[in-house]
Amino acid sequence: MNEGLDVDVSDAPPATTSPVPAVAVPARPAGWGDLEVSGICKSFGAVRVLDDVSFRVQGGEFVTLLGPSGCGKTTLLRIIAGLERPDRGQVILSGRPLDRPAHQRPINTVFQNYALFPHLSVFENIAFGLRSRRCPASQIGERVGRAMAMLRIEPMADRRPHQLSGGQKQRVALARALVNEPEVLLLDEPMSALDAKLRAEVQIELRRLQRRLGKTFILVTHDQDEAMTVSDRVLVMQDGRIEQMGTPAEVYDRPRTRFVAEFLGAANLIRGSRYDGGLETPLGVLVVAERLDREGGTLAIRPERVRIVRGCPPVNGVRTRIRETIYRGDHVDVLTECGLRARTPAAGPYSPGQEIWLELPPEHLVVLAD
Amino acid sequence: MATPEPAGGGRYLGWLFVLPGLLWLGAFLMLPWLVLAALTLARRGPYGEVLWQPTAENFRRLLGFGLLAWSADYLLIVGRSAWTALVTTIVSLVLAYPLAFFIAARRRGRTRYALLGLVIIPLCTNLVIRAYGWMLILSHQLPPARLAGWLGLIPAGSSLYPGRLAVYLGMVSSFLPFAVLPVYVTVERLDWAIVEAARDLYASGRRVFVHAILPQTLPGLRVAVVLTFIPAMGVFVVPDLLGGARYMLVGNLIQQQFGPSRDWPFGAAVSLVLMGVTLAGLYLLRDRGREVEIP
Question: What distance in Å separates the CA atoms of residue B22 and residue B27, rounded to the nearest whole number?
Answer without folding.
Answer: 8
